[in-house]
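Protocol step 4 of 6: structure prediction from sequence.
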Amino acid sequence: MATTDRDYYEVLSVARDADEATIKKSFRRLARELHPDVSDHPEAELRFREITEAYEVLSSTERRALYDRYGHAGLRSGGFSPTQFDMGNLGDIFASFFGDGIFGSAMGGNAQQRGADLGAEIEIELVEASRGATVSVPFDVAVTCKTCGGDGVEPGTEPLTCPRCEGTGRLHHVSRSVFGDFVRAQACPECRGRGVIVEHPCRDCDGAGRTIESRELSVNVPAGIHDGQRIRVSGEGHAGALGGRSGDVYVLVHVKPDPRFVREGNDIYSQVDLTIVQAALGATMTVETIDGTVELELPAGVQPGEVRVLKSKGMPVLQGFGRGDHRVLVNVAVPRHVTDEQRRLLEDFEAASDENTYRANDESFFDKLKSAFR
């Protein structure tokens, strides 16, 4: 009984004159996207069965001709019924259609398994984050056993084919219902899915096929990296089982706070302290940046809270171009303790001051606010 009455060409997203290679390519792509183990779509299983049914018809010259001429009714009258597949193994489905093993062996035994990923942490200075750095990371990792080559079998001996699963590594149970045949697959408990039984395990790895080794990995930290970001080093993780590819190493980067600076995105903030005399008369101040010290000219009458921008003196843009800015906050220190002489001089200064002494040459704060809204 068909699972869909939708047009099969529409289901596979191919033209009605599509050749066999185009139909096969489209089915492979859709199968990878819609398999229930990959897709989180609520109707993933139904849609997956639709595309497998469509491919069963369009990949057969006789069925396709019958469908093109008489549609779904012609298929039903011809006795066509879609195959019921085990949704748990995409490799088995592909192997049934194509006879290949792009997702593992069609029989399921001795399938390679990718190695597990590994995590590590490093800590660098803010200046190192601005320039980039190479950091050595020590860690323990599972590697392929050099004695047995990863198969877990003692050299000079041979494993036995599992008698229970006959080397497939999997057991299939078929149950019938009014909706058709349902296939349930599970790893063979006798050989644990390997398809073989190792009577003489490798003495160095105890049959695991992998041993633990201490390594040191040089990690290139790119300039501009942020605290909490991870660097992925491909293929340096735990070795895979039975020759499967190794996992990856994910290095978590911690950037230590620098007491001189505050980082916001790619911008750097710092503060320069002036006396009231320096603020009134102007001054040349030495300012520290992540690239070293620079001279900053502050004009007479600079106000507390003003921000002076050093263009392109901030952090590099990670994996991009350009740099952020270094923003310097001006702080004016007010005397807390004055002598009698200093008090007299300040009083004389105040007596000699008028409205022009403190009048700003540019817009007031409220004028700037109004301009911004305008």
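Step 5 (inspection) to follow. Residues 98-109 have pLDDT under 50 and may be disordered.
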